[in-house]
Write a sequence for this structure.
């Protein structure tokens, strides 16, 4: 029986936690040298962090996964704030342009060059920063053209400069969050790889110190290599419809223990006729070529050299 080193975060963390527990109990007895409990837990802690102590003392220390989660959340917020700032900036610029049309022309003309519109268009780009600065300069040079209140909006040099600063600050924060997210993701992938490599290293070391049928394999979270066992039944299978008219369904599930591959079966839920069947080594698959509007039933079974599990609980979805 071959042991599997999971790629997904959750199953891998569970496996390596078991690895550490096994090393704690038997590491000294079997004379582990390269993958001791201390080394296993150090790699695991770098990935998962440490929880807070009683009453928050000592404070929790996030690992690479927590930092990546936080960076993703910050990135989403910063991007939303940037989009909002751009939208508000465009609205102000458009309002100011409309107040100037009676003076500079309802359509673009040479008169608009003075307001910074030199490209033959009055269109406001997605990022209105430059347009707002141009309008600020125009108002500074032509204060009589300022309008203090247009339906509650001030079309003035001060207002345009303030809005431009908000757009600039939001853009800077968004760019910073993108950079931090990239760094956090890289660190997460590195920590995940280190933990995976540690589990692989322990597995290799155990083959040198334990017999294939030694039950202590189980204490480390591994199966006994000399005791073949079928894979677990996949659980928590989910299906997502593709775009309208794509006739495609995306199916995902957590990796099943002892699985080397999977069979995905798509059936008619009434007649039970099999409409599609796919084999995959990954815990996800795209099912194309189904009939739009049909309601189908999906199951997933796990496979390895010893055989195939029972199918998962069937789920239903309408083909887009």
């Amino acid at each position: 029986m071959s042991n599997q080193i999971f790629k997904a975060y959750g199953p891998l963390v569970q496996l390596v936690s078991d690895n550490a527990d096994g090393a704690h109990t038997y590491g000294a007895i079997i004379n582990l040298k390269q993958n001791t409990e201390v080394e296993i837990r150090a790699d695991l802690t770098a990935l998962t962090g440490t929880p807070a102590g009683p009453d928050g003392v000592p404070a929790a220390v996030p690992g690479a996964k927590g930092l990546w989660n936080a960076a993703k959340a910050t990135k989403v917020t910063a991007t939303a704030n940037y989009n909002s700032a751009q939208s508000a900036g465009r609205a102000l610029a458009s309002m100011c342009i409309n107040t100037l049309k009676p003076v500079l022309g309802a359509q673009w003309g040479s008169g608009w060059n003075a307001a910074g519109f030199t490209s033959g268009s009055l269109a406001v780009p997605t990022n209105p920063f430059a347009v707002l600065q141009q309008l600020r300069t125009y108002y500074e040079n032509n204060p009589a053209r300022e309008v203090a209140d247009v339906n509650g909006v001030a079309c003035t040099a001060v207002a345009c400069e303030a809005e431009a600063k908000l757009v600039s600050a939001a853009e800077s924060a968004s760019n910073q969050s993108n950079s931090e997210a990239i760094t956090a993701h890289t660190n997460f992938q590195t920590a995940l790889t280190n933990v995976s490599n540690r589990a692989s290293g322990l597995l290799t070391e155990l083959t040198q110190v334990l017999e294939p049928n030694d039950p202590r394999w189980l204490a480390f979270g591994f199966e006994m290599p000399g005791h073949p066992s079928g894979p677990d039944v996949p659980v928590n299978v989910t299906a997502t419809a593709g775009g309208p008219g794509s006739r495609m369904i995306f199916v995902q599930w957590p990796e099943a223990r002892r699985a080397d591959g999977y069979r995905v079966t798509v059936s008619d839920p009434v007649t039970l006729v099999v409409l599609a069947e796919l084999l995959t080594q990954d815990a996800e698959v795209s099912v194309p070529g189904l009939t739009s509007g049909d309601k189908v039933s999906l199951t997933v079974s796990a496979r390895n050299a010893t055989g195939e599990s029972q199918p998962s609980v069937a789920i239903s979805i309408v083909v887009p």
User: Anything to note?
Assistant: The first strand starts at residue 49 and ends at 50. The chain has a mean pLDDT of 94. Helices lie at 9-26, 37-48, 64-104, 129-141, 157-209, 216-219.
